[in-house]
């Protein structure tokens, strides 16, 4: 854990960057590539710590995985021939790895134990364990399976028809992963649509999946076939530079190959609603995961209301949107976002505490926050809470703060964006 002090004066951001691969899609490429028998090749893979944790877990299950830069080759004997691991599977800081693997491991014939870091040890797992238990999964863990370490005794599963109590792609995906091995048709009903990378990738690996009016259904027992997956740039990483470009003076940034899947693009709608100076050029709308070049420049912004169905489409971007709102004229209200409380840290508290230290006019609410702008920000010593997105929010705030901003732990940024400071330096003029 190393601290970092940042000081910028009148910085303008100019140039082009290609943000690293999407975290959610990178995880899933290794998961599906490991379930499928044979070879899967991946390009554009994110070498962030979270995705490396996923690779490590599957290697312990006997899957051969070679990483060469951002290219990954997976040679798998198929889920039926995985090895029972002698060691505990360590999922690090990654909620996606822990929750999705719970779904996958439940339908094997193996006994496995999973654990992660201190943050993972506080994140709720029963949202996944409970529906999996309805399918017949045998899961044990602290507080009846709420917290890691989790022990899973894999076995036969039955399909379920499940109505999601929260909008969560991790819960949906864990059920779909288990559904692959279950007898019967698995149905997941969402009232608000969460990211759909699992559904898209199931199709890429040859499965037949139906999605209609927020209902995902598919037949268990379908075999997956190894394939090629191209991972687009992560819009959740691009978001930090979209905001940085909008709030600094004389800036003009071109972000290339950004994934713009419409279950993830809420940040673009918010920027548009706030009046950002931004253009979006779609590359190929028909790709498995569409991408775009996004150009952003210094913007005059106005406050907005962010609530309801858009929340799952920008849940990971709320910390940086809160910073954006400190520079907009008027009030920004963020509601319906209680899920922020169970992310890598409680992100309502973390965002409000840290932006307040910089002088922002921001108050926490039960399900979000209210920000009044514009405010000139001052330097401060900030805590990251070991949360990569809180760390990057602090670093972007440093670009406009009057004085030094110190982050107590900048290393955590490597969870999703190991080259973040390199990219920031390359744009700073
Ligand atoms: C993710 C889903 C989201 C998101 C997380 C990644 C995924 O979590 O916050 O960073 O890859 O499925 P929830 O599904 O719990 O909302």
From TrEMBL:
The keyword rRNA processing does not apply. Pathway: Metabolic intermediate biosynthesis; chorismate biosynthesis; chorismate from D-erythrose 4-phosphate and phosphoenolpyruvate: step 6/7. InterPro entries: Enolpyruvate_Tfrase_dom (IPR001986), Enolpyruvate_Tfrase_sf (IPR036968), EPSP_synthase (IPR006264), EPSP_synthase_CS (IPR023193), RNA3'P_cycl/enolpyr_Trfase_a/b (IPR013792). PROSITE patterns: EPSP_SYNTHASE_1, EPSP_SYNTHASE_2. The active site is at residue 316. It catalyses: 3-phosphoshikimate + phosphoenolpyruvate = 5-O-(1-carboxyvinyl)-3-phosphoshikimate + phosphate. GO terms for molecular function: 3-phosphoshikimate 1-carboxyvinyltransferase activity. Pfam families: EPSP_synthase. Keywords: Amino-acid biosynthesis, Aromatic amino acid biosynthesis, Cytoplasm, Transferase. Its EC number is 2.5.1.19. It comes from the Bacteria. It is found in: Cytoplasm. Phosphoenolpyruvate binds at residues 23, 95, 123, 170, 347, 389. 3-phosphoshikimate binds at residues 23-24, 28, 168, 170, 316, 343. Residues 11-424 form the Enolpyruvate transferase domain. NCBIfam families: aroA. Belongs to the EPSP synthase family. Catalyzes the transfer of the enolpyruvyl moiety of phosphoenolpyruvate (PEP) to the 5-hydroxyl of shikimate-3-phosphate (S3P) to produce enolpyruvyl shikimate-3-phosphate and inorganic phosphate. Monomer. This is 3-phosphoshikimate 1-carboxyvinyltransferase.
């Amino acid at each position: 854990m190393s601290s970092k002090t940042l000081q910028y004066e009148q910085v303008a951001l100019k140039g082009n960057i290609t943000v690293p691969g999407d975290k959610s899609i990178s995880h899933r490429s290794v998961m599906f590539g490991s379930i499928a028998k044979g070879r899967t090749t991946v390009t554009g893979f994110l070498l962030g710590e979270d995705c490396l944790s996923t690779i490590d877990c599957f290697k312990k299950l006997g899957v051969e995985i070679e990483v060469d830069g951002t290219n990954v080759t997976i040679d798998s004997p198929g889920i039926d021939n995985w090895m029972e691991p002698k060691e505990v599977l360590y999922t690090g800081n990654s909620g996606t790895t822990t929750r999705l693997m719970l779904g996958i491991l439940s339908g094997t014939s193996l006994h496995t134990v999973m654990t992660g870091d201190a943050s993972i040890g506080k994140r709720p797992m029963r949202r996944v364990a409970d529906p999996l238990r309805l399918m017949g999964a045998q899961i044990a863990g602290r507080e009846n399976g709420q917290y890691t370490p989790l022990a899973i005794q894999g076995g036969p599963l039955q399909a379920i028809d499940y109505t999601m109590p929260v909008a969560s792609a991790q819960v949906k995906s864990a059920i779909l992963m288990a559904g692959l091995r279950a007898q019967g048709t698995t149905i997941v009903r969402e009232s608000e649509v969460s990211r759909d990378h699992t559904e898209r990738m199931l199709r890429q690996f040859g499965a037949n999946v139906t999605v209609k009016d927020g209902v995902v259904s598919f037949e268990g027992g379908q075999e997956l076939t190894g394939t090629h997956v191209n991972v687009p740039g992560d819009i959740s990483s691009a978001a930090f530079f979209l905001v940085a470009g909008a709030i600094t003076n004389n800036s003009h940034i071109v972000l290339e190959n950004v994934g713009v899947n419409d279950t993830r693009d809420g940040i673009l709608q918010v920027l548009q609603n706030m009046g950002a100076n931004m253009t979006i050029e779609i590359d190929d709308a028909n790709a498995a995961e569409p991408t775009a070049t996004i150009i952003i420049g210094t913007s005059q912004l106005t406050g907005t209301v962010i609530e309801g169905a858009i929340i799952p489409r920008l849940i990971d971007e709320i910390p940086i949107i809160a910073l954006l709102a400190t520079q907009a004229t008027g009030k920004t209200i963020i509601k319906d976002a209680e899920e922020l409380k169970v992310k890598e840290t409680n992100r309502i508290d973390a965002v409000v505490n840290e932006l307040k230290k910089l002088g922002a006019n921001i108050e926490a609410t039960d399900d979000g926050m209210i920000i009044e702008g514009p405010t000139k920000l001052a330097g401060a010593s900030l805590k990251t809470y070991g949360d990569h997105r809180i760390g990057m929010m602090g670093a972007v705030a440093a670009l406009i703060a009057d004085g030094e901003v110190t982050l107590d732990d900048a290393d955590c940024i490597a969870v999703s964006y190991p080259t973040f400071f390199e990219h920031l330096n390359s744009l700073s003029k």
